[in-house]
Amino acid sequence: MNTQVLAAGEAAYTKAAELLRQGQLVAFPTETVYGLGANALDAGAVPEIFRAKGRPADNPLIVHIHDEKQLDGLCTIPEAARPLMRAFWPGPLTILMPRTPRIPDCVTASLPTVAIRMPSHPVARRLLQVCDLPVAAPSANRSGKPSPTTAAHVLEDMDGRIPLILDGGSCDVGLESTVIDVCHGTPVILRPGGITEDMLREVLGTVEVAPSVLRPLGEHEVALSPGMRYRHYAPEGTITLIDGDEADVVRALKLLYEQAAEDGRNACVLCFTEHMQTLEACHPHDLGSIHEPGQTAHRLFDVLRSLDDEQMRVIYSEVVPAHGIGLAVMNRLGRAAAFRTLHARDVLASAAPAENRPSDQ
Ligand code: AMP
Ligand code: MG
After folding, report:
1. Ligand that lies nearest to the alpha carbon of residue 60, given by its number in the listed order
2. What is the pTM of this model?
């Protein structure tokens, strides 16, 4: 199959809508990441998404709409969802809703709920309006790869697998939507994203974060969100996160890089802009400013993709505080690293000669 990349515009929307109506797949930008869409009501088209991505069939999809009226007959809207829809739609918030049998089982992996989102990106909105279909769309990457934040990333993964990619430039948020469950008592964030815990708490009063957001799922633990079961965003090399005081972290990164390089491993560090110069000999990749976790969110997937392109085998990374958008960053970065973390002081204490060990103050 020949994959066409078209700059977003009326002719491209018409073509994309036609393909969707015929049961074919179209990749398109949203404010979070690029999505790979199919008509959500077409039980013949949706399985094509799983095939193109290599996605396990038990990992359900998010249904994208441009107008709340599209939900009539598809799902019931929980009372707690209404203030969220008013506050955050259109935008990067996905809400679980009890579904009707009109939604094919393949969309929800036979779960009783369906995940719904109204994106705010002008290209996604216009496409959804022109095709006038609810569109099931997971991220447009091959399963296990970082989500795509540019049309070039989508092409890298989907060339020859889908007929059309709409190019709308690079995505603003850069991480996938926040997923929230308001169907069972206290609302629970299943996946953190651009709409933060604090923003949700302001509207809902109370909200919890699913425990597996910042740690691996236990062997017999049931995933509240099936996607959490799977290894995600993992580069081929091994990422280790380095936590601790800023100055110690920078020294530890340098030391660990030098050890790996001495061993002849292809190594690099992921660090904040402020540390790029100090770490210039350590093959640094820029995560954005230490003071702007939104920049780290925006860049993270692009940086993770470049690690495989450069065949990096050993990767050491700084971390951001896990609140605000930082919670979403640490969820993705943590999973990319299989939550492997070292404390900078331990690294310095065990590896350095006595005179270089961290001080006690
Ligand atoms: P993706 O669109 O690839 O970013 O993945 C969609 C995410 O939404 C996955 O993590 C799914 O597990 C989650 N999801 C979709 N539908 C449901 C549902 N009905 N219940 C729980 N999680 C869901
Ligand atoms: Mg995904």
Report:
1. 1
2. 0.94
Pocket of ligand 1 contains residue 9 by CB under 6 Å: no
pLDDT, position 233: 75
Query: Which regions of the chain are under pLDDT 50?
Result: 361
Q: How far apart are CA 344 and CA 256, in angstroms?
A: 10
Count Cβ neighbours within 10 Å for each residue of 319-349 and write b for 16 or more, e otherwise: bbebebbbbbbbbbbbbbbeeeebbbbebbe
pLDDT of residue 352: 61
Is 190 touching ligand 1 by the criterion CB < 6 Å? yes
The predicted structure's pLDDT at residue 231: 61
- In angstroms, what is the span from residue 343 Cα to ligand 2's centroid? 30
CA angle 117, 123, 127 (to 5 degrees): 75
Phi, psi at 65, each rounded to 5°: -130, 165
Out of 178, 179, 222, give the residue to mutate to test ligand 1, the one with the largest number of ligand atoms within 8 Å of its CB.
179
pLDDT for the residue 107: 98
